[in-house]
Write a structure and sequence with these properties.
By secondary structure, the chain is of the alpha+beta class. Helices cover 35% and strands 21% of the residues. Bound molecules: ligand MTE and molybdenum atom.
């Protein structure tokens, strides 16, 4: 009786070890594919990631991406990677099972590797990615097998010896997966190189922005160091400049198609421009500014000779994203291919994105490849999910910095943005909105038609907890809407306020 219980326990333990070994091989194979091809469409986790963002219920997408932003994307990516590891582990475990029948330990290595290869290839149709996945997997399988030599060609899972062997295999596999996995993780965390101003063609403009910025603790400069990102997929398209093209289609007399070389030879426009996401919170962080370079969109539409029934367009992108809005909005829009003097980064839509001044960020379509002139109005990606984010962005004055100065005064500051309506001043109240004072405002960034400002206000704190409220005033004197609304569906509005301790 005792023996039966022990055998049962040993059996389960051996099986548990085997599950973990399978997971380790899964980790190693997934990491191998990542090291071979990076976060690209060829990465083995990409199909899962795409599947998740395409088929998850709309409510999940609506909140996960627009509200959680990059956190939502990270959750998606982590889930996709776990599913990939799980699939590979299942294959490895299955192969072990099959092999038990034949009882040839070494035979397991080519069989498992072969199956992993087939799975990777079916997922990605990419040789480099699949080979990248199976090489480390095969190596680890071999090490585990060689180091824990089993001197029987029978798989007696209930035997004590097998448990000891499994334990050794399990330790080796875990160490291997941890080492290799951490190499991959380090690779993944490597950030892009910081911008070096020396050989930057936009140096003059970036220097201007630096000089105009207030130097205040806790507040971003006028050109954002870490520009926010919102993407419907966690793995962005990897579009090379020499394979990119854009077509103006639909209700046109001539379909116009241009490639990257064409676009760089067309009229050039450079300017500061701010983007703000409709899904951000009122005092959120999804509003940033960069110095962009591109070419105006209108000449392309003129060449196409458009004739739209609704005066509206659908702009489509490589990642399956699409947004519909009035042609009118394109009046001052550019197709941008440089950001802060550098080629547009992949995460911001490389090689070419649309930039529509003054509007919510969602219609500034990244990886843009088609401008379709429509006959009838249709919903865009976010509008299908209930958002109304194609119009002009709401006016906002944020409060991000709160410092106590050496002289005992308080200093508060933030950014203010009013799209193309422009900011004339920012007002601050330190008594909950009863009385108002004018804040200092940074000079206009030039050239720009919708760039934000920074504001700063210094005051002697009253001897108690007090409420600071801030509001922007537009160029024409319109005071920012006081009424507070949530972000869904039309973007946040209202005055930002904060309780401050004297
Ligand atoms: N192709 C494509 N374009 C896109 C998106 C996207 O997911 N795919 N996101 C949009 C949203 S909601 C915003 S707010 C801006 C953000 O631009 P950024 O990621 O460069 O900050 O891009 C817009 N353009
Ligand atoms: Mo957005």
């Amino acid at each position: 009786m005792n023996k039966v219980v022990r055998n049962l326990r040993n059996f389960n333990l051996a099986r548990l070890y085997r599950v973990i070994i399978s997971l380790c091989i899964g980790v190693v194979a997934t990491t191998g594919s990542f090291i071979a091809v990076g976060f690209s469409p060829a990465f083995v986790a990409t199909p899962f990631s795409r599947f998740l963002s395409r088929y998850l219920p709309d409510v999940v997408i609506k909140y996960a991406i627009l509200i959680l932003g990059s956190l939502g994307q990270k959750l998606n990516l982590i889930t996709a990677i776990m599913l990939t590891v799980g699939l590979f582990a299942g294959i490895v475990f299955g192969a072990y099972k099959v092999n038990e029948r034949f009882g040839r330990p070494y035979f397991n290595i080519p069989v498992t590797s072969g199956l992993l290869f087939v799975a990777s290839y079916l997922l990605t149709f990419d040789l480099q990615s699949s080979v990248g996945a199976i090489i480390p997997a095969a190596v680890l399988l071999t090490i585990v097998r060689v180091v824990t030599y089993i001197d029987t060609d029978e798989y007696d899972l209930s035997g004590e010896g097998e448990v000891a062997d499994s334990r050794r295999s399990f330790i080796i596999a875990s160490v291997g997966a941890a080492l290799f996995g951490s190499v991959g993780a380090r690779e993944a965390l490597k950030s892009t190189a910081p911008t070096n101003l020396e050989d930057n063609p936009a140096k003059e403009f970036l220097t201007q922005a630096e000089q105009k910025s207030f130097d205040i603790d806790g507040m971003d400069a006028l050109v954002s160091e870490d520009f926010y990102e919102v993407d419907i997929n966690s793995i962005n398209p990897d579009v090379k400049a020499d394979s990119w093209s854009l077509s103006v289609t639909g209700q046109v007399a001539n379909t116009v198609t241009i490639d990257y070389e064409d676009i760089t030879e067309m009229e050039t426009v450079s300017r500061f421009e701010t983007l703000r996401c409709v899904g951000e919170s009122l005092n959120g962080e999804k509003m940033d500014t960069a110095f962009w370079t591109g070419t105006p969109v209108m000449p392309l539409l003129e060449r196409a000779d458009i004739d739209s029934g609704c005066g509206c367009v659908m702009v489509r992108a490589e990642d399956g994203y699409f947004e519909e809005f009035p042609v009118e909005a394109l009046e001052d829009a550019i197709l941008a291919y440089r950001m802060n003097g550098r080629p547009l980064p992949r995460g911001h839509g490389a090689p070419v994105r649309l930039l529509v001044p003054g509007h919510w960020g969602e219609i500034s379509v990244k990886w843009v490849d088609e401008i379709e002139i429509l006959d009838k109005e249709m919903d865009g990606y976010w509008e299908e999910r209930g958002w109304h984010g194609t119009g002009p962005a709401n006016t906002v004055a944020k409060l991000h910095a709160e410092n106590t100065l050496e002289n005992g005064n308080k200093e508060v500051g933030g950014h203010a943005y009013a799209g193309t309506r422009g900011i004339s001043r920012v007002e601050v109240s330190t008594d909950g909105g009863s009385t108002w004072n004018e804040a200092e405002l940074t000079e206009e960034l030039e050239p720009s038609i919708d760039a934000w400002h920074q504001w700063r206000y210094e005051y002697e704190p009253p001897n108690e907890t007090h409420t600071v409220v801030v509001r922007a005033v537009e160029e024409d004197g319109t005071v920012q809407t006081k009424e507070e609304t949530g972000r869904f569906p039309s973007g946040p509005s209202g005055w930002v306020s904060r309780e401050i301790q004297a």
